[in-house]
Amino acid sequence: MNTIKGSDDINNALHPCVHIIDEFNHIDISSALGDKKTLRDTDSNYTYYFSGCKDFKLSDLNLPGINITNTASLLKVWPNSTKEKSVVFNYTVLGKAENIKWHKEGSMHQLIYNISNMTTLPTVKLLCDNEPAPFIKVLDTKSNQLIFSSQQACIITIHHGLSGGSIFLIMLLVFLTIYLVGGGLMLYFIRGARGVEVIPNIEFWRNLPSLVKDGLMFLLAGCKPTFVSTSESYDRI
């Protein structure tokens, strides 16, 4: 028996066909039936029709006694009476696509039809299967429990690529490492530099703060060289 306990148990997806598990994983059953309108399975006298996350017209079944104006995503049908070799059917609409709520029980994802007038909610368990042809199997006719087997019931994992900013930072770190390590090794072995002198262009890095300051002053002065305090600082600019 399935009951709704709270928002933690039920995931209200933006679309009944798609269940977002996390940032990288989701399930999409929008095309799980292929070119078929419905799948069906019979247990005892009860036949179930399942159309996935989309409703189908009951008139498509061409069964006597079925209200042709109704639609359903999960339908339960059973014979009512036999008169002169003609069978009239009773039926119950167990749920429509708009009633679907995604639920996870253990490692298995399920479609639960949240129907307010039912104490036991109809449930379709999703089985990830590599077989190309999807099918349904009735588990319990009293509680209306079924299994839906399909390749589309498998979890889809999407590996997001690196953003442009991430690529830029990686390239910057690589070039900076090559610059510092490669330049330092050359200064150490070729020129015999020691201590901080192994840092490439050490004089430039020492003078960088004052160069930045002079550059900002030059810009704030409207790029007028006369505003710079000394000719030496202007020459550095």
TrEMBL record:
<feature type="transmembrane region" description="Helical">
    <location>
        <begin position="167"/>
        <end position="190"/>
    </location>
</feature>
<dbReference type="GO" id="GO:0000139">
    <property type="term" value="C:Golgi membrane"/>
</dbReference>
<protein>
    <submittedName>
        <fullName>Uncharacterized protein</fullName>
    </submittedName>
</protein>
<dbReference type="GO" id="GO:0005802">
    <property type="term" value="C:trans-Golgi network"/>
</dbReference>
<keyword id="KW-0732">Signal</keyword>
<dbReference type="Pfam" id="PF09451">
    <property type="entry name" value="ATG27"/>
</dbReference>
<keyword id="KW-0812">Transmembrane</keyword>
<keyword id="KW-1133">Transmembrane helix</keyword>
<dbReference type="InterPro" id="IPR018939">
    <property type="entry name" value="Autophagy-rel_prot_27"/>
</dbReference>
<keyword id="KW-0472">Membrane</keyword>
